[in-house]
Amino acid sequence: MTRLKPGATGQITLTVGREHLASTMGNTGVDVLATPMVAMMFEAAATDALSPVMRDDEISVGTWISVYHLKPTPPGMAVTAKVTLVESRGIRYLFDVEVRDDVEKVAEGKIERAIIDRDRFYRSLDEKRVR
Length: 131
Hints:
Layout: E1 9-15, H1 35-50, E2 58-69, E3 78-89, E4 92-101, E5 105-117, H2 118-130
């Protein structure tokens, strides 16, 4: 089974739109990139890093995240999250993350994701619904 080695990277870039703003998420008057969107970018960049080594019957799921949102980013500006794999233990992969806009670093942190069997995951959800 092919798995990632430390140093592997992934990334996502988006242009901050109204749907990404803190004000859209209930923080009235704060028209900048929302911290939950920064966390979403961590997830998407880590998923990008893992996708080349995943089999068709696998999915990746988030297990832990730490986000430090350092600077605001206004609407219309591009922002890129880049993850770098620092450690893998079995099915778990720990990444360092840096997020930069067109001007500066705006966030950093860590995220852990696990690669798991898709069918087993959905069976566990079905069992939970029956309870």
